Amino acid sequence: MSVKTVAHRRPLVPVALAAALLTAFLLFAAPLSASAHDSILGSSPEADSTVDTLPAELTLTFSAKLIDGEGATEVVVTDASGASVTDGDASVDGAIVTQPLVSEAAAGAYHVIWKIVSSDGHPTSGEFDFTVANSTVAAPTAEPTSTPEATASAEATVAPAATPTPQPSESAEDGSSATTWIWLLAIAGVLAAAVAGVVAVALKGRARDAGTAAADPSDPDSDAPSER
Fold first, then answer.
1. Are 76 and 90 in contact (CB under 8 A)?
2. Segment holding 123, helix H or strand E
3. Neighbouring residues of 137: CB distance < 8 A, sequence distance ≥ 6
4. Dist. CA 114–CA 58, nearest whole Å
5. CB under 8 Å, gap of 24 or more: what pairs does 34-43 form?
6. Which of 30, 97, 181, 225 has most Cβ atoms within 10 angstroms of its Cβ?
7. Which residues are CB-neighbours of 154 under 8 A, at least 6 positions away?
8. pTM given for the model
9. DSSP string for residues in 128-187
10. pLDDT tens-place string over residues 18-46
11. Cβ-contact 222, 213 below 8 angstroms
């Protein structure tokens, strides 16, 4: 009498189901492990917050110690016009990133873009905004348009001081008066000489006429004695 051995075959459905579940787990686990990079926990100024003035530095706090190195950490902070307000490079201290900022900044909206290298070696980045209420930009000081020396020189060129008219001195006035009197005396002397000349000529004419009349005997008015 022979003994027959019966082989029991296991159903294939449970095995296929287990393989499918394992494949699905691996597919879902891979993105989860890839996304488990260090994440940002907070910042100062905080995202979407409003601060009185722009602080001296911006800090970012992450969930684990970051990998530091040249080019590993970058932080860019710009104002509403797109101008950068960072002052130097960012520094990393464990899980904290510090970015110095300029001392003078205008009021308005500010945008932050950051990039770090997580503790697992994978780079990650993000961005957020905050608002500054008051400006710290110093008002420009008005400079003088010209120096006092230049102003004085310009005034001297444009409007020279009037030269005072010299006034005649007393000695000049006395000399002028003396000269006037000399001329008057000279004219009076000439006039007196002329009058004296005229008088002398007239007297001489009369004397000549009188002598002529005395010499003529026929003249009835003559005083000469008559012959007897």
1. no
2. strand 123-132
3. 104, 105, 106
4. 11
5. 34/122, 36/120, 37/118, 37/120, 37/122, 37/124, 38/62, 38/63, 38/64, 38/66, 38/95, 38/116, 38/118, 38/119, 38/120, 38/124, 39/63, 39/124, 40/114, 40/126, 43/112, 43/128
6. 97
7. 146
8. 0.50
9. EEEEE-S--PPPPPPPPSS-HHHHHHHHHHHSPPPPPPPPPPHHHHHHHHHHHHHHHHHH
10. 666 666 555 554 444 444 578 999 999 99
11. yes
Peptide bond into 45 cis (omega under 30): yes
Alpha-carbon distance of 58 to 46, in angstroms, equals: 9
Q: What are phi and psi of 182, to 5 degrees?
A: -60, -45
Q: Give residue for tokens 């080019």.
A: 71
* 115 neighbors 124 (Cβ within 8 angstroms): yes
Query: In a 3-state reduction of DSSP, which class is residue 84?
Result: strand
Q: Which amino acid is at 199?
A: V
* Neighbouring C-beta atoms of residue 139, cutoff 10 Å: 6
Amino acid at 195: V
User: How many residues appear in the chain?
Assistant: 228
Joined together, the tokens standing for residue 110 give 């500010």
Residue 128, SS3 per DSSP: strand
Spatial strand order in the sheet of 91-93: 40-44, 57-62, 96-100, 91-93
Check if the beta carbon of residue 103 is closer than 8 Å to that of residue 132. no
Q: What is the 8-class DSSP label of residue 47? A: T
pLDDT tens readout for residues 48-94: 999 999 999 999 999 999 999 888 999 999 999 999 999 999 999 99
* Planar angle of CA 147, 151, 152, nearest 5 degrees: 120
